[in-house]
Task: inverse folding
């Protein structure tokens, strides 16, 4: 039987399903009896709930962060769904498919990786080609690289998001390197593929996506440079100047100091990397925001960070009379 | 005989050539006799000079803004070239090729325009196609559109620069509209072609490039919207919504209020237009800056507006061992 | 019988009155029975409420945005008033006075308009006088102009607010044009009357005040310029320079790019318009904020946008010993 | 019997204790009967509560701002503690120890003051020494100076906080004046001791810490300068230049106009005062934030004002293997 | 014989006139002989010059800051006027009219002061009226108040500028206090007259306008508050609240912390004072800028601080067809 | 014979000395004969000069960047010194003391280094102590560390400046770690000593101080982290957490992203490092600015970067009556 996801719940129905127990707080009714406020989640979202009965037994049996099998009734409370839990039992992690509980890319990870490898295989700069051979031969690196999200919240914030974002940028970078003369295609492509490798350690993404200690202390730019430094040592006679130009791509890819880059882009390739990164992140972030907005009408709710509503209504080309 | 340009002058040589007299100031030597400080220019730059003899006759004969035939000796003064003028006579404008005195695109204007027309000819949205038919049929508009610079100083600041910039963006926009699903290719392309049409009136570009009165009072965004409004009236039954979405492309193409857009981009097409415009302007501006830098070494002088030096040294891919 | 308004409700009383049903959400009690959370509003404010009984019948009969006749008991819940609804039935719009449901100016709209017309009638610049004759002769324009609010939230955010704000500015502009020599009184007055005409289309103000699609895509500055362009065509031989100076008043009236003006004020009249607009808006906004603050003491609550508390205590001149 | 503080309450226990009644709101149950929502506080924090019974009698007997004797049961509601009040009676202020209700420094106030006096006693600049003799001889001033908090919220926000902050800065200033040559130790120390004297009137700190009317209208910088002006008149022949240099320390101690200083620091002593003030405030503020964070793990919650999480985990020097 | 001013010099003429010797530097010709570069100034501007002969005698006789009688020939050098000095002798200050050397208001100082006194004479708040009686009775204060400039550079930067600026604001404040209900006219007027009194000591304005030591250390806001404090003590029983509200006018008149006000305006009168001050300063500053621009055309040069060109061309109302 | 430095030159004297030829430009006199404009420099400053005779021979013999022996006469030109060169011959670098041509610390470099080593020798955290043993054992590192300046322009911009700045901070950090409880003294000291090690490669400081290619591409923060990474590998079993906390000190020492730190300080030690660094840099920078100002009076010229004049006048404690 396929899992019923949070996004599929409707008021008035009954559920019998496994969720992640994200939060759990005990409270007391006026008569002095305890009850539980809980938050249940999976990769499609989260929902609040209450447990009125058998509270003590349940409290003893499940902890925050556990996977739990829940029998419950779905209702509405103050305009939101609320799950009234009848029973809740712990499920061992090995019995669940972890991927049900963290949102993931809908694209084929194997194909995306193969496409990136094909691109680095076409590089004409021997030292860069050798560098990527070293990266792709590192199984632990590849395993993390294909699984990491590209961010905690803003864009591509799901399992495989880093790879999806990187591949989209790589395709754009080939187009753009062909459009402008005087651009070093291999250097640009190398910068694109490496610019966010530090995300594999800046973030943790086992049961939920959050920053690691190392991520908070150092940032993915610093971590990525350290990872690159290590791999550069494995390529014999990597030219010092090329190493500095490549590191500069990572150092400067946020565009300005105010956004966390210690130096701004100073080569044409670094300038292009910054634009491609911003454009691809922004497009993905807006499309996710529009896609997740359940409201009617032509406009999304106000986007606090980008400080505007986005238009999601029809374009004339959609219609016969356009 | 081909003209000898300012950029070709060398200390120690003699010249016999036509320039624009950009500035002219009288001064007095210690012995009480007058002399002239002058600035001569053409499309390749400007040079300072002095007139020691026959000052009164020359002053009476030539005015600032005149084209002048100059016989002179080129020397150096405090590290710069200085022209010591022996004689200077006014030349009627009809005897000079105005294009020698304003920098212009090196690309073929006719081909660039044809390529743009071909693109609008492939539009599938009837109302947009009809709109561009109206624009291309307006000879006065086309004449200005193919001649206007894209800016006074920053990027594509030469005759034909607007067309060159627009075409480059149009090509990029076709690539990018193909890369991301859900983008209205015709709306994006229309926005690209129209985003800077107001530049044709914001700037004056007969003998030099500067702002017009209308440009200073209204800005090219406002002027462009007014030009679009006029053309929209010539297309029967242009859908109101499409008109607003198209105007929004012009309104928002600077990206933020701080950069002069009354509203930020709120459609995916307007977001893309803003990125493509910024990227193409920035790339052109850096390449011009690097190309015009005569200094040795791997770095340009400090760029005050962009607040950095740019790297112009070799990349490893340039070299055999790369 | 006069309507009892939201602002007049007191805990412990019963009501039998028509409101706008602003929001409606179903929820479920522990026993599984549904209830409704509702928000009722009129021009004096809004109040939350609950419906415990006959929920299904009511849900079927009324929708958000309907006018509803409500019988209920007013109580307090967590420090705010709460309406416990006994019955709720839909009322056709034609049976209500729409003005009861949107806050409106307390001033006489006819007199305010007459005063503005008297001022434009005294203009000595023929082309400007002719322009306003065209505006005042446009009944659809006048109908919108006297009804539009000046903003959604910040100041004069009520029906007729635009007219009230404009007239106050017009009176100030006559004083100030008389105070400083060298100010073109007619140009300043014309700018004052036209600076916000785009608000008539930027906002919607039938049942509530919000932005229109056109408003979000273009902003009132752009819309106002388009409206002015249209009217200018109806005045024969309107001098081009005067048209540009007048448009510049609208373009620059927000003072800086950061506040949405593509160009800053560059004429003395545009500079004055910006100051008069800011002063009148700020004064109105503070007075509204103070007037609506029900708290005791000498200070309003913290004003988040203006980042301060405002003093509302006595001045010494109020008191005998002052 | 020692008082049981808010910070010591645990769900499930009964209490019989005096608190400050910070807030009180009446509400109604579905059956029409009233109940009370209350907030109780003391120097360790605040807790929400409800009164279900005898509501009318209690409402008549106690007002916001009263000290109240409460008998109640502690429970949990939506993840927070909630006090279910059985009875509540007013307690006259003279029967309570006011210090139980406002957080205070844990250091010995008398010793701190003595240390400051010892430091001013060692001054070698006669006029400054005489100035502090005048301050210390002013009993009303000293009483306020040793009791005032250093801020409402940010740092040293407790009774005696101003003195604690000032003494810490004074000790640092002696070290630093010894470290750098050319620093006028007496001028720096005088600036340190006086920089925040205006806080004694900017804030009110009887039952809670908040701004006074004078504080909101003038700021502690202005008030402090006025207090200094008054004392300067009591010192015969105080040199005018020294008075200006000393006032400059107060004027500029926030470092920049944006932080409220009309002039930035222009003497080496004023520059040092600004750094010492910022460092000591920041260190105290972070340590308070870490100390009050009850959460597990190595990181505090996000600090909105300082825009980061703070690390509170172990350092290697804490551990045997460090 | 009337003085010939710097602004009246023309190339080719001879002069025999007194100036202020603003700068004096010795240099050497190639032949080893010394010469002098000098700067001469009066209230209309300054001009550079050279002394070729008798250099040693002149150096011994005149110093920077002296008034000097100059015989010379006026020529042009690199586009500017240059004075070739034949002789230069010191003139004792008592033999010159100091007002020839500092720019001054063109308005009647006595009448301006009388108008201000008339306005304070009409005050209905006894304590404020008494306060101004005390100010006007202080001869030293009045002497400085009618002579001080309002700024070093930006606006009303000439002798009597403070009075001219204050009176203009006072007249505006009466209009505006009459326009808006609920404004305390006396408090607003008092704030207007006192807001910049600190300028009398912040600036020095004997031979040139510059900041005083006290001005640099404290700012005119702080100095003005101290002057007010002193006068307040001379008015028996001045109400404490009124004193604070009046001081708040001075404290907040720059509008924001970033512009040097420790607190922003929090009363309606303080808000109005800030707008009136900004408007009057800006109008004066633009008009001075336009008036002093000798260039042809419709536009001033770029104004660096205000970041724009100003339009100085015709308005249609100027012309017959307007 | 001791060298005569640029700072010691006086108009009217003759010189016979070695300088660095910083700039060299040929120009032509009116008679067509060439001459040279040159700039000569040493560690005390630079001076402009001219060569009138034997120009061609000299041009052939010396290049920019050479050390040159100069015989000349010192005069004044337009208020500055000017050297009239009679003869100029190249001097091989091995014949000059390079230290005469770059400004250097006046403190004893050996003693400063010894003091730092003594401090690290007292560390109680074994892994940190071992880390510094590795650094001090690296002769190439130490040679660069004791010679590097701390900046190109702003503070400690001279040979040995990095060491002087670091030692001053180290002494302060010991005081402050003793003042506040809960500070890890060893971690703070380690951060202080390492925070700017990247400067040894970010800057070049052989004949003049400027940025290296690596410095412009990567910044000293990134370079320093890479140097630390390398040394950490030489310490067996360096705890991972300690490595991250130590790197965080370097990463965050500029305090905010806007100043080039990818992450802000998140530990109490990193917060203190940032304050100590800013304070020590600022104090040094102001003292250098005051020391190098030759002007009379109580104030320095306006400091563009710090946006103020600095007071350099007397303090009362300097005088008998203080």
Result:
């Amino acid at each position: 039987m396929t899992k019923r996801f949070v996004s599929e719940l409707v008021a008035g129905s009954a559920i019998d399903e496994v969720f992640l127990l994200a939060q759990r707080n005990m409270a007391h009714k006026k008569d002095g009896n305890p009850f539980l406020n809980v938050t249940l989640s999976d990769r499609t979202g989260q929902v609040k709930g209450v447990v009125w009965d058998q509270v003590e037994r349940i409290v003893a049996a499940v902890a925050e962060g556990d996977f739990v099998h829940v029998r419950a009734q779905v209702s509405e409370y103050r305009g939101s769904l609320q799950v009234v839990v009848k029973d809740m039992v712990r499920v061992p992690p090995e019995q669940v498919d972890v991927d049900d509980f963290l949102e993931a890319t809908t694209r084929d990870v194997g194909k995306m990786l193969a496409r990136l490898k094909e691109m680095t295989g076409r590089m004409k700069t021997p030292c860069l080609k050798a560098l990527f051979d070293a990266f792709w031969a590192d199984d632990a690196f590849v395993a993390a690289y294909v699984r990491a999200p590209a961010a905690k919240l803003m864009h591509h914030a799901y399992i495989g998001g880093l790879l999806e974002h990187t591949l989209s940028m790589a395709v754009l970078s080939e187009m753009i390197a062909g459009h402008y003369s005087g651009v070093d295609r291999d250097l640009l492509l190398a910068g694109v593929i490496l610019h966010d490798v530090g995300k594999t350690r800046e973030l943790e993404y086992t049961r939920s996506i959050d920053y690691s200690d190392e991520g908070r202390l150092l940032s993915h730019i610093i971590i990525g440079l350290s990872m690159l430094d290590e791999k550069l040592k494995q390529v014999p006679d990597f030219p010092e100047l090329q190493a500095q130009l490549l590191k500069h791509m990572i150092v400067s890819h946020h565009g300005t100091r105010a956004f966390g880059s210690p130096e701004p882009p100073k080569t044409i390739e670094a300038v292009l990397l910054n634009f491609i990164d911003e454009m691809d992140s922004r497009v993905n972030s807006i499309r996710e925001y529009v896609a997740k907005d359940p409201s009617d009408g032509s406009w999304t709710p106000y986007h606090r960070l980008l400080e505007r509503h986005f238009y999601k209504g029809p374009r004339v080309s959609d219609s016969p009379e356009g």
